[in-house]
Specification:
The complex is a heterodimer.
Chain A lengths: L5 E9 L5 E2 H8 L3 H8 L3 E2 L14 H13 L12 E5 L9 H9 L6 E5 L4 H14 L5 E9 L15 H9 L2 E9 L7 E10 L8 E3 L14 E3 L1 H23 L8 E3 L5 H11 L5 E2 L3 H4 L6 H10 L7 E8 L4 E9 L1
Parallel strand pairs in A: 4-5, 4-6, 11-12, 11-13
Antiparallel strand pairs in A: 1-7, 1-8, 2-3, 6-7, 8-14, 9-10, 13-14
Helix pairs in contact in A: 1-2, 3-4, 7-8
Chain B lengths: L10 H12 L22 H13 L5 H6 L3 H9 L2
Classes of the chains: A alpha/beta, B mainly alpha.
């Protein structure tokens, strides 16, 4: 059964500072530049933290507010019409207040329900799902959906990484920072892109997490636990398979044929993994819309960066399908868009 | 890196390096085994291994060729002069 339609009226994104290339990153991390280039396949990323000094230049709330301001500045959008805000992130600035409320404050929005989803790579889609459900309820007509991450919170430029485990080190070459936002409306407006279907499903029963991000409090802050752990081997094995399953499930739900797709937004793990997954998805007639090779994997910002790129190309009647996998606890996610 | 700084890395030394640097407990007879038959192998180990090999041999390692290798022996061949 397809989900009731909401519409994307506008989109905005924010990437902090200048792009950081592999030469600069390799120097800071003390790793092989060619390895990042060839094995990860990501060329540049952006960091909210200054790579030289470690100083925080932008908070997650700053980036989310910047992205939202761009979405709200679109001609067809009235910021006063925003009736709810949903934010998906894995890296909130603080546990309380929830970052979504700091974003509302920066945007000058008040007296609206706000929600924050603690989420990894599927979070932007979970936020879209919540937004769509709220609009479909008939209680709300316009809302703001945001996704963002500041992965560089764990990029300690003073740390000696020479003894770091590969499952630790790989995080620093994969990830980046950024945010994106979309204004959702009940009726077509602005970009007039219908959100035809959203998939968000936990499928990790009994499975070991593929990605773990610890958090530390006063009582355990000196624990020797690895802050970030990525089971790259499991991700390499499972994500392409799950991505193909998601594609066909979404097409089935929508009653769309694969060759009807004009655009495909594949999972954005890294430049190399995304290339491989796109090949396995096997929809050569659809144009691939990817950003990770230039933006790095900035988690919850990725689908918005892809949608922004897509909107510049989409013509009337064009169909697009997005696939995402959150490997933390193996969540299948995706959505379908149609320009009307 | 100059030629004078390069060093020969025997296959046995390479096996020791693999054990020390990435903690993979392999026996010398497993060095030519396909990665599919080495359940504990993780392609992520290459990050550590490339850096360690460059330090041990004093030569730059061709990462693209290392990624194509199907066994540790093939990686050794690339690193020592392939």
């Amino acid at each position: 059964m397809t989900t009731p339609t909401a519409h994307i009226a506008s989109i905005g994104t924010a990437l902090p500072g200048d792009p950081v290339d592999n030469a600069a990153l390799a120097k800071v991390l003390g790793v092989n530049e060619e390895w990042i280039e060839v094995f990860i396949g990501t060329k540049t990323r952006h960091f909210a933290r200054d790579l030289g000094t470690g100083t925080v230049r932008w908070s997650l709330a700053d980036l989310c507010a910047q992205a939202a301001q761009k979405a709200l500045a679109a001609p067809a959008v009235d910021p006063a019409a925003i009736e709810f805000i949903v934010l998906g992130t894995a890296t909130p600035d603080t546990l309380m207040p929830a970052t979504v409320n700091q974003v509302a404050d920066q945007l000058g929005l008040d007296q609206v329900p706000t929600f924050q989803l603690q989420s990894g790579c599927a979070g932007a889609i979970q936020a879209l799902s919540v937004g769509q459900t709220m609009i479909a309820s008939g209680q709300y007509r316009t809302g703001l959906v945001i996704g963002g991450d500041v992965c560089s919170k764990h990029l300690d430029v003073q740390r000696d990484l020479s003894d770091a485990a590969p499952s630790d080190l790989v995080n620093f070459v994969l990830f980046g920072d950024g945010a994106g936002a979309a204004v959702l409306t009940a009726e077509p407006a602005g970009e007039r892109v219908a959100l035809r279907h959203v998939l968000n499903r936990f499928t990790g029963l009994g499975s070991k997490p593929g990605q773990v991000i610890e958090w530390f409090g006063l009582a355990d802050r000196y624990d020797d636990r690895q802050a970030l752990t990525e089971d790259y081997k499991a991700i390499e094995e499972r994500v392409p398979v799950m991505a193909v399953e998601i594609l066909w499930e979404l097409l089935g739900e929508l009653d769309w044929e694969a060759d009807e797709l004009d655009y495909l937004l594949p999972p954005q793990l890294s430049g190399r993994m995304t290339r491989r997954i796109t090949e396995e998805l096997g929809v050569p007639t659809a144009e691939e819309i990817s950003c990770v090779a230039d933006t790095g994997n900035n988690g919850n910002a990725l689908p918005f960066l892809q949608i922004e790129k897509l909107l510049g190309r989409m013509g009337d009647g064009h169909k697009a399908l997005a696939v995402a996998v959150e490997s933390s606890k193996w969540i299948k996610a995706g959505f379908a868009l149609e320009k009307i | 890196m100059t030629d004078s700084s390069t060093a020969v890395l025997s296959l046995d030394d390479f096996v020791s390096l693999v054990r020390d640097e990435i903690g993979l407990e392999i026996e010398p007879e497993q060095v030519a085994v396909d990665f599919d038959e080495l359940p504990d192998w993780d392609s992520l180990y290459l990050l550590k291994l490339v850096t360690a090999l460059e330090l041990a041999t004093g030569r730059k390692v061709a990462v693209g060729k290392v990624l194509e290798a199907r066994s540790l022996k093939e990686i050794h061949d690339v690193a020592v002069g392939g």
